[in-house]
Automatic annotation (TrEMBL):
Keywords linked to the UniProt accession: Signal
Pfam families: Big_3_5
Gene3D superfamilies attached to this UniProt entry: Immunoglobulins
Polar residues biased stretches: 114-126
Source domain of life: Bacteria
The keyword Signal is assigned to this record: yes
Organism: Saccharopolyspora halophila
Protein name: Bacterial Ig-like domain-containing protein
Entry annotated with the keyword Cytoplasm: no
Stretches assigned to the Bacterial Ig-like domain: 41-127
Chain segments carrying region Disordered: 114-136
């Protein structure tokens, strides 16, 4: 074995190790932990009929919050409804309606951003059948009305009308 270039080899090895250390430490220095978030969800109304519009409003709280981010994704059970951006007040709203009766478990999932971690919450919207409109009142038909002419005899024997 010839180690005539051992000093060059050492320099490359030291440079390589230094480069690895720089990458590892800079990644750790730039990585910031996510702030914890809290997401709340309101449905208005909480009881609805099939086809009635319901407004879902998610509110995100995070100390390092910036509007937008990856938004809030709304689910009805496992069905994706939509993903909505978060406004400057930390809110994302979705107007929807339901085609089936029964309880609908709605999940609002905040997807996080570079400062805030993800969080989610659920609420329930109870959906009933659309009410049957009342039957119209029957129109008077005049059926069953009888005109009666009453005649009487007066004392002189003539008919009076």
């Amino acid at each position: 074995m010839d180690f005539t270039h051992s000093s060059s080899f050492r320099r490359i090895a030291v440079l390589f190790i230094a480069l690895i250390g720089l990458v590892m430490f800079s990644a750790q220095a730039s990585a910031q932990p996510f702030e914890p978030t809290t997401t709340t969800l309101q449905a208005s109304p909480t009881t609805a009929t099939v086809g009635q519009q319901v407004v879902l409003t998610a509110t995100v709280s995070c100390p390092g919050f910036a509007p937008g981010g990856l938004g809030v994704t709304f689910f009805d059970g496992s069905e994706l409804l939509d993903t909505v951006p978060v406004d400057a007040n930390g809110q994302a709203s979705l107007t929807t309606s339901f085609a089936t009766e029964g309880p609908h478990t709605i999940t609002a999932s905040y997807n996080g951003d570079e400062n805030c971690g993800a969080s989610n919450t659920t609420t329930t919207v109870d959906v009933s059948a659309e009410p049957t409109p009342p039957a119209p009142a029957p129109e008077p038909c005049g059926c069953g009305l009888i005109n009666i002419n009453v005649f009487s005899n007066n004392a002189n024997g003539r008919e009076a009308a």
